[in-house]
User: Fold these one by one.
Assistant:
Number 1:
Amino acid sequence: MKKLCVIGLGYIGLPTAAMFANHGWQVQGIDVNQKAIEMINQGKIHIEEVGLGELVERAVANNSLKASTQIEEADCFIIAVPTPHNEDHTADLSYVIQATKTVLQTVKKGDVVIVESTIPPRTIDDVVAPIFNDAGWSVGEDIYLAHCPERVLPGRIIIELVENNRIIGGFNEISTVKATEVYSTFVEGDLLQTSALSAEMSKLMENTYRDVNIALANELVKISEKLGVDALEVIKLANHHPRVNLHHPGPGVGGHCLAVDPYFIIEKAPEEAILIADSRMINNSMPEFVIKQLDRIVPELDGKIAILGLTYKGNIDDVRESPAMDIVNSLLKSRSNLAIFDPHVNQSQVQFKLSGFEEAIRDAECVVVLTDHNEFKDLDEMKLIQIMKHPLIFDTRNCVNVTSDKITYINFGNLKEVAVLNNSGVVSR
């Protein structure tokens, strides 16, 4: 049985390790999080992802998956550590570099090393390969190196690891072939062979494409507010064109991909990446835009506001780069009466106090929906009417289904109708 070592047991590393462990590999997972190590070795998971718990439980029970803080010998190493950005938005490659140096401790001739972490263009050629070459290895001859970026959607990771096409970008041709053999273990999609540089750039452009198109929708919302136009209706009508597919607007862009990856391109070509940089600026401005609208809806700074949702997308527990977190942190500085609820987020993940649903909405002037969790799509309208001070919803995700005419509903489509709350607690229309 071939041995695989996955370094980094987060949102990508753990599903990847569990998938290989359920398809004939003896897998060791490496992480610095001791609590995560203990949970995994008990067949439990420390992150939320559909279907992952069953995979990990089965692999641990079969002795095909174990977690540790110390690396052992393997035939293949997969680096799946984070690549955050620095304050100036350049890539922080310290985790990738440290993981590469960790592999050096046990790598042997003929091994395959794969970087799944999202990285700026030329990182494999200019950063990772030199670490091995400087240690006496000949990359592409003694050991084989490739960049094979993940391209999965949280909430569907287990499905998409198998079904999605996979980019295999080798340091050289033989490295591409060796890495392709690894993923052919379970990937049913096409294995797209290319160079490491093209793989790096392709991954970044996939997420940049989405970021740019979301920016267009968000800019439309701002323009529509100024002109008194229903932005959501405009998008719906425009999308009837056979070659138009405008994205949905929202309170901003978050997560470990869309909010980060475009900067890795900007970093390498700042004078050329004009559209990409402008799109980042637009999407980064949306939390401030949401707060501006909220100040119009509830002008009294001591009025209670209930925040629903902290994660960057629905039905996951990931708050990384979440615009909802930016909005909450800003509101906490300016408002004295904020209650926050997210059924997918634990208190240990945030520094401010979380509330239950009823506690959050009780005596609230307004409910602000920042994440499209399924739990928010059909809220208990009777509770909203009975225990809120004013039954009013500001839905930045356009996801809440409101049926009662006793509830005032505001989204990015009817911002033109927003005035301030009057004495009766009803937004004038």
Number 2:
Amino acid sequence: MTTASSDKPVPTARRPGRPTGSARGPEQRARLLDAALTLFAREGIVDTTLGAIAREAGFTPAMVHYYFKTRDQLLDVLIEERFLPLRAAIGGAFEANPDDPVAAITQLARAMVAVAVEHPWFPPLWVREVISEGGLLRQRMHERFGHAHHDASLARIEQWQKEGRVNAELEPSLVFLTLLGLTILPLATSKMWRNDPARRSLTPDDIARHAVALLVHGLRPERDTR
């Protein structure tokens, strides 16, 4: 005779590494991406394995491989889902202010600082993987986006110079790099000067203000029109 318990459906065995629950899937995937960004910023992309990302996120290696078969696949996803929105947030300043270079530089500096504050991994990762020689992220970003946006920015600065809106002595190809050095670099090294009495009280707004003042006015006092 069949017992009541025999009528109960037999639960399906869970596949190894597969996320449990439809709601948890996206959360686990996002957590893996966050862990990858943290390790890439701290250790570098080349020296970070999928196993290390699993440990950082508190998951098994099987869980990582369920979502990302290789590190290259994970990096492509990061570029598409994490860096593309940041690029959109930072870009557009020159297009929004075609006739006002000061407003464009101000907007760009503030956007860079805002992105860096919201995403603490961004400054150290940018220094390690984008502006350093041999950075893997820079290579992949160029493959993904090309140079069109950068070339358009240079053309805009050159046009401003021809119109007399920007100092003709400036080197257009160095303006963006200079702005990065004035914003991202201080934020990337902020842990080093937390105990420095001269700089430990600086805020992100102070960094953005300083960057704009230095680029727009240089060392000359604002009231000095010589």
